[in-house]
Specification:
Helix content is 20%, strand content 22%. It is α+β, with helices and mostly antiparallel strands. Bound molecules: zinc ion (ZN).
């Protein structure tokens, strides 16, 4: 937390809440932005003023003027908060090098193909590079490549033209579907209401090693089924029959 954090927030009105990549941006009335990253295990929980008691690892607790308690809970403490003048937000070291948001207008097939040209890495690893596209995580990279019919092992330089357009479309669809389903709850993630997300029930390939992918009769006993491989230390799931 930055120095003077409590005093800077005390009595301020939050006028807007935005998201950029995996960062939350709370715009304060005094032209400052309260910048938050949830890390691996952080989450906000909303409750009543006289509701549940604080839990261990509730590191920040705010009370709003209408009696809502906003609790930031983070057992692993990888989360991050800062207060930044809003006009300087783009230059913040955590945001300055981020690529475009996958749901924003700057993320197009042409842009993606240009950024991937000359990259000797796999497309899966490239999608996790936050300088290319900001906010893609490991689960959504596997799911997007499945929807686009592209192998995660394919070299990033081969993603251009129609392939790049198809991948951009798939990424947007997967993220929009995941947001509509309230996110993916694997270990810690909860919605602010405390509810679990539901998108994990709709995974086509992630975490489904040896199963058949949707719409496919691939069977691992006949050498098919979803495979799990490790790329750059992260698990990747894909169907070798449907993804080329
Ligand atoms: Zn399959």
């Amino acid at each position: 937390l930055p120095a003077g954090f409590t005093d800077a927030l005390h009595g301020r009105t939050i006028v807007a809440i935005e998201r950029r990549a995996k960062f939350l941006l709370f715009q304060l009335e005094d032209d400052h932005t309260w910048l938050v990253h949830l890390g691996m295990s952080g989450r906000f929980r909303l409750g009543e003023e006289n509701g549940e008691a604080a839990l261990p690892h509730d590191h920040v607790i705010l009370r709003t003027n209408d009696g809502c308690m906003v609790r930031y809970h983070d057992p692993r403490r990888f989360g991050f908060m800062d207060l930044v003048p809003s006009r300087a937000i783009d230059a913040h070291p955590r945001l300055a090098k981020l690529g475009p948001d996958p749901l924003g207008p700057g993320f197009t097939g042409t842009y993606l193909a240009e950024r991937l040209s000359g990259r000797m890495t796999s497309i899966k690893a490239a999608l996790l590079d936050q300088r290319i596209v900001a906010g893609m995580g490991n689960i959504y990279a596997s799911e997007s490549l499945f929807r686009a019919g592209l192998s995660p092992r394919r070299s990033a330089v081969t993603i251009l033209g129609r392939r790049a357009d198809a991948l951009v479309r798939a990424i947007r669809q997967v993220l929009e579907d995941a947001i509509a389903a309230g996110g993916s709850s694997l270990r810690d993630y909860r919605q602010p209401s405390g509810e679990l997300g539901y998108f994990q029930n709709a995974f086509a390939v992630y975490g489904r090693e040896r199963e058949a992918c949707p719409g496919c009769r691939c069977d691992w006993r006949q050498g098919g089924g979803i495979r799990r491989i490790v790329q750059n230390g992260r698990a990747t799931f894909y169907c070798p029959r449907r993804q080329r």
